[in-house]
Amino acid sequence: MRWRIALAVGKDDGVSAGVITYPPEVERFRGEVRAWLESHLPTGWFDDGFQMSPEERAAFNAGWTDTLVSGGWICATWPTEYGGKGLSILEGVVLAEEFARARAPMRADFFGDTLVGPTLLQWGTDAQKREFLPKILSGQMSWCQGFSEPNSGSDLASLTTSAVLDGDEWVINGQKVWTTQGHHADYCFLLTRTDPAAPKHKGISYLLVPMRQPGVEVRGITQPDGTAEFCEVFFTDARCPKDAVVGGVNNGWQVANSTLAFERGMSATVGYRRFAEEFDLMLAEARRNGAIHDPLIRQRLMAYWTKIQILRINGLRSLGATLEDRKDLGVVALGVSNKMFWSEMHQRAMELALDIWGAASMLIDTGPATGSWPGALRDRRRDGYPASAMMSAFFFSRSETIWGGTSQIQRNIVGERVLGLPKEPRPTEKS
Description:
Blueprint: H1 2-7, E1 11-13, E2 16-17, H2 24-40, H3 54-71, H4 89-102, H5 110-123, H6 126-138, E3 143-146, E4 162-166, E5 169-176, E6 187-193, E7 204-210, E8 216-220, E9 231-241, H7 252-265, H8 273-289, H9 295-323, H10 329-357, H11 389-397, H12 407-418
Parallel strand pairs: 3-6
Antiparallel strand pairs: 1-2, 4-5, 5-9, 6-7, 8-9
């Protein structure tokens, strides 16, 4: 009942109901961010139907990162001594909210800005922070994540890539897979086994490994759409310095969990927006083509709207737990279950989108152009991929219950660690 009352309070944007206000000083900061965006984004950006030509878009993209740097908005929550603004948690939330509201791009260096940078701030030595953080912030250094292996995906702690100390260097051997942007990265934050005799969670270390060296081979994994964003990486006597360990030798599992927490927590109060935008697009098409008169379509649309509101409120709950520095089992369950919730919700929603558009879903020009359909990764028509932006979003949704932890593993975590249920039986080897 409490959340239903909150939803009835009012509307702040699109389908998002319930007005949330932060402390006055944080709302003043919101005004500063909003004013900066309004003065630095292209003229007409906030007008209905605003579009840029391909040339204008290219020029904007080329200069926008420098504009963000001049405004101090990249990694703005980092301490000032490392180039950030030292924003508070709430100020960082407001910054993300205002950029999302304006649909203004923040620099998309996900692995550096969002994952390894915050991990170094929490676990890194002073020397590591001085070496890497300025280069991450300036964009001089790009990163990839070396966690998953061919036989160690969901059960990540079973990884076998090894690092053996040889004088002042670690010698690394093994294979990683699904390494996004591995072919472009300068460095990899890599999980390796440094003590094979220890229990599997206890013998892992978190290393910072140069990618551009002998002994590192990167192979693109070609996807059905012709792209090769994901890679497999082979390490054959590759090396990194002895002091490239983050958080201490054999403490990599705890450090890696911090990295994953940054990944899942970065969009607590804005992650719902892309789903809200998709809902609006679906609703508009259902009204246009008459699908809205189908009671099952109406019911499914309402179910999607309701789940978006639950996701939004759960984001606020996560924010509240962060502000209170709570780490109890309820908070763990919320973080894990949120990932299951939105990924499974979105798969059902994209199936709904296909049903709303019907047979026209198979046409390359179905649905809004890229830039309007939030789930589309890129302009598929421009790149020669024979699917609309909406269909591209549908295809991508199929992967969402796998990456970042499969739904099956997330359910095991909730059952075993939160509810205290017996552990899942392990297969026994036949004699």
